[in-house]
Amino acid sequence: MCRNITTLRGLEPAATDEEITAAALQFVRKVTGVTKVSDATREPVERATAEVADIVTRLLDELPARRRPPTNVPPLRRPEVQARIAQRMKEREEHERMHELGIAHSH
């Protein structure tokens, strides 16, 4: 199993849709060898990720409860990762705003 894929079964609180989708994307990237999604790979990767996420959601719902929760904190629940995600979102919003206003900037 890819070491970047987090164990989601037995989390308290239960795994979120975002955590399931992130794990599904890691799986799809691993099995396809697509390290960076491009225009050519975006649609099939997104479709496969959504399908895997649906399957994982159903599977987690059907499995019995774990006796012990996972020992590792999922990355999306770690404060430093949440801070990085928030920073990226802020930068992305600022970048999109520059496009909307027609402000010159670098990519």
Automatic annotation (TrEMBL):
InterPro entries: DUF2277
Region span, Disordered: 88-107
Pfam families assigned: DUF2277
Protein name: DUF2277 domain-containing protein
